[in-house]
Amino acid sequence: MSQRPAVLLVDDDAATNYYNQRLLQRMQVSQEVLVASTADDALAILNTRCGHPATAACPTLILLDFNMPLFNGFEFLRAFTQRHPALPQAFVVVLLTALPLNPHLVEDQHLPVTAVLTKPLTAEAVNQLLRNYFGVS
Amino acid sequence: MPPKASPPIATSEVRFRSLFDNTPELILYQNEKAIILDANPAFLALVAEPRGRVVDHCYDDFLPPEVHALFRQKLEEAFAGKTVRFDMFAAQGKSAPRHWDVVKIPLWENGAVVGVHMIARDITEKMLAQQEIVTQNQDLQQFTYIVSHNLRAPLATALGLVDLLGTEEPDSPYFEETRTHLQASLHQLDLVLRDMNTILAIRDQKNLAEAEAVPLAEVVQQVVQNLQEVVAQCGGTVRVAIPADLSLRANRAYLYSIFFNLLSNALKYRADERPLEVSVTATGGEGKETRITVADNGSGFDQQQAGDDVFRLYKRFHPHRPGRGLGLYLTKTHVESMGGHISVHSRVAEGTRFIIVVPY
């Protein structure tokens, strides 16, 4: 996997989505940065684009806000893994939190969370993700 | 002059009899088979039985089955010569369940335990107060957690945006857009801090001093009046059935806020398929608790999923409708500042019913 992935941003806050999107755009991380402001929208995007996760249309890097109304990050992932039990392995899911989370809190959920990052997202953190999980140097 | 003789000390028998008869604690004397050989008036009063139906009966007869084993074990330990102490929550006889601090004390005669005294003290009030403190601590902890996350989130975004701003070309559309979002984040931060101020003001005990007897019907009518236009616009009706003489010792502004929030919610989350109907009813007065119900036929919510979270700070359930998740938290805080309790029952597509109970 040394291809730059399509990215899906999931956050209810417009300013945060703008910031993350612009950061990724400036870094030329991906051809495509998709934005969902609700968990429902995000699930819809994944449903329509990820019949075959290996295709370019499917955003395999998901940057997910932990603290969303209605569905928090965990609840979103639970819905996602329930609907597509086989899919989550194909994704790199990064939980974005306002403050550092207790690691046990994440582990105890047994959800496909690849990494947890404290906001704001930085170019350095994004580069590290690309290096570690997508073989991009 | 010879010293005046002090009055004679009452005999042990008289002293201990007085203690036995007059202490509010329960005192029993039991044999090894748990048969009650003696019971003090406090015990007889609690189980509401005459002496003849207590003495020579097994203590088990007055205890629920789930604590029989515990009592047997503790009695055995006491008969083995140990003074034992334990807590339990149980009914005794026909009394309601209470928390008891129980001590069993062996009585020795010629080197052998011949019987066991039990003294039980009612610690229900203390336990309840303790539980309340634990609950309050948990609430505070959760409050701090939510607040810190909700303060850090817009701040983190602002930190990111201000860095980004430094790299954008001034006067470019990107610069302007970044600046606009930065502004929005700072406003969000400001809003959260203002919310904190509102919440802390309600919790400030000094406000209780402003409590007055507020006529309930009057306040509700005032809220209905102020929302009338919105209600009329959506073709809804609000039915109010509150006795004219029913009043509540409360801060008028808080009471207004409670009904304003609940009615606003009913309007906001009405079902599109049918005209909104809200009913506000209340009973109470004359030494009884006040019970207020605000019920609507709106869109409702999934109570299984939401649980008690509807009252949580910044918790929202309708992503496509505006709202900050503050209203019901404030409502709950207002109700609690009056010493009351609020609960909710809701069914999707049927409606929502809020019940407020304020003790007399």
Automatic annotation (TrEMBL), chain A:
SMART domains: REC (SM00448). The modification 4-aspartylphosphate is found at D65. The keyword Nucleus does not apply. It comes from the Bacteria. Residues 6-134 form the Response regulatory domain. Keywords: Phosphoprotein. It holds the Pfam family Response_reg. The keyword tRNA processing does not apply. One of its GO terms (biological process) is phosphorelay signal transduction system. This is Response regulator. It comes from Hymenobacter elongatus.
From TrEMBL, chain B:
This is histidine kinase. It comes from Hymenobacter elongatus. Pfam families: HATPase_c, PAS_4. The keyword Transferase applies. Gene3D superfamilies: 1.10.287.130, Histidine kinase-like ATPase, C-terminal domain, PAS domain. It is an enzyme of class 2 (transferase). Residues 12-82 form the PAS domain. InterPro entries: HATPase_C_sf, HATPase_dom, His_kinase_dom, HisK_dim/P_dom, HisK_dim/P_sf, PAS, PAS-like_dom_sf, PAS_4. The keyword Kinase applies. One of its GO terms (molecular function) is phosphorelay sensor kinase activity. Keywords: Kinase, Phosphoprotein, Transferase. Its EC number is 2.7.13.3. Residues 146-360 form the Histidine kinase domain. CDD domains: HisKA (cd00082), PAS (cd00130). It catalyses: ATP + protein L-histidine = ADP + protein N-phospho-L-histidine.
